[in-house]
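Retro notes, item 3 of 5
We never archived the inputs for the cobalamin complex last cycle. Fixing that now. Sequence and ligand:
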Amino acid sequence: MGKSLVTLVNPNLVHPPITPYALDILTTSLEADGFDVDVVDLTFRRDDWGTVLREYFGRHQPMLVGVTVRNTDTIYAQQQRGFLADHRAIIDEIKTLSAAPIIAGGVGFSSMPFALVDYFDIPFGVKGPGEGIIVGLANALLSGNSPDTVPGLLVNRGGGRVEKIVPKLGRRGRPLASPLNATTSYTRRSGVPWKVDNLRYYRGGGLGNILTKNGCAYSCAHCVEPDAKGTYFTRRAVESVVDEMEALTAQGVYDLHTTDSEFNLVIAHSKNVLREIIRRKDTDHSTPLHNLKLWIYAQPTPFDDELLDLLVRAGCAGINLAPDHVRDDVLDGWKVSGGGRRFYTFDDVRALCARIAKAELPVMVEVLLGMPGETAATMTDAVRRTLDLDVAVAGYSLGIRAFPYSPLGIRMAERCAGRRTLPGLQSDSAVEPIVLKPRAMCASIVEYERQFAFDDAGRFRPVYFLSPDLPEDPATIAAPNGRWVNSVRLLWDLVPSSEYHRVMLPTLPGLTEDDNNYADNPFLLKLIELGYTGAFWSHWPHRHAIMSGAVA
Ligand code: B12
Ligand code: SF4
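Structure as it came back at the time:
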């Protein structure tokens, strides 16, 4: 028996299921501090989650309930599906079943945490890594201390007022105590009741996951991650990371996707992780790491030959590379380091793809179309030049979700200045022009964040940006819910049908059967049913044969 019981709930109802890694991390820290922890996972019971909650809370009275909110919505311009209403329904049900206070966190949650504490009407929240803070809160509640003594905690004062308990800051404005457990291995389990079941997720989703470092110090205009995860890199201890990989592969979870924002930034650390995997494989013929298949997210630089060689030897199975575009005029001021400098050119991308192809590692390149300055000409150039790359799959998306603290979102709010909408701001569910206010014009942080997900009447209205310089009718651009249909069609026209097999394109209802959205994607669900594992994109070129049953 531990000090007291903390219950962690996973409300993610999207399939294929993704292991709620965060809950293993929180469990590790809470257990290390002497708490009992139950994980109530609703993902595999998405059709009867109410029953699960009623049965669980009928028998258990935790002192604190934690809810993880991984995604706010699909962030996919052509299928703008929201998850917040489902999450709120689950949280409301927990409130009727348990008197325990509720705390929420998660990467999606952290993209608008003040607004979501208010929206879910819960007493507490956390932005960014939450293991230190949830342990602090559980101890404060247990000992009768005020939650206001927990640095970094978001506290709901009611009436739309949410405050952050200011942490003590040290060098370069970083908190004195790291909110992240960067030293120990996180406990990963399979088949243990009331814990995250890593093997079940692997069988049901084809991937496990592993974190080697947290945060991102870069400042790409479209990106929510530096703000939501942390604006600096916190490296995890190399031994602990590889111990964890060994534990997962021993449980039969062979395909591990990195959950770093980008695996190759802080390249010395990435190499050390890979060297440690190789060292164990070379010295121990029985280590389950021989079964490891590692899938990584990477930027085009830094990426030298040594990194490539180490990746191959460590068991890398595929690289998801994000050059995002090919043209300097579009990338300038967009893909930049924390200091505002561009960190790669398209020549770097071309050379890197050639080197990786030589090493026979599959690559998917991601291209993000529709950012400011995009025209039919720049889009044409981007498609042509990326199709020339020697890669297994090229994925194109059109339009970007604007978030309260992504550089693009901040800029859009400043340019609207609470007075006018901007050409390019769009939401499928908007019923009036989208007029954003900068933070300084809002009465509270809650008001500032909320406008990126809800309209004035409280309806879900996620804000997207699509370049108004693309070949759309003026009426489409003027309408708050206009669809960039011409641009989607243009994209399809730019790709010769001989290339369709290896290309992921945005779709519109009725335009095509192919869909590159991960959430409840029919092809993906079929892959899982047939027992495929590994990154979704690696099977994409064979999708027609797989769907028609020609390959199993
Ligand atoms: C890897 C990844 C993927 C992989 C996952 C592979 C795998 N098996 O894990 C794939 C490609 C499959 C994927 C899919 C999707 N993804 Co994704 N993904 C990521 C990525 C890079 C890592 C997520 C992760 O596991 N992080 C590591 C964990 C440990 O960190 P964490 O969850 O933040 O947890 C910490 C804190 O948040 C906090 N915390 C978390 N929960 C809680 C709870 C409490 C109570 C407390 C106190 C604290 C707390 O403490 C934790 C430990 O420090 C993130 C971006 C990022 N850098 O995190 C995007 C990201 C989470 N994905 C995103 C999205 C949108 C999706 C999709 C919906 C895309 C789509 N339309 O199909 C799908 C989701 C489908 C689903 N079933 O949920 C968005 C979410 C944005 C948002 N606002 O909602 C992100 C942020 C990417 C982005 N830049 O926008 N994804
Ligand atoms: S490198 Fe850029 S795109 Fe990648 S996580 Fe960092 S800020 Fe986001």
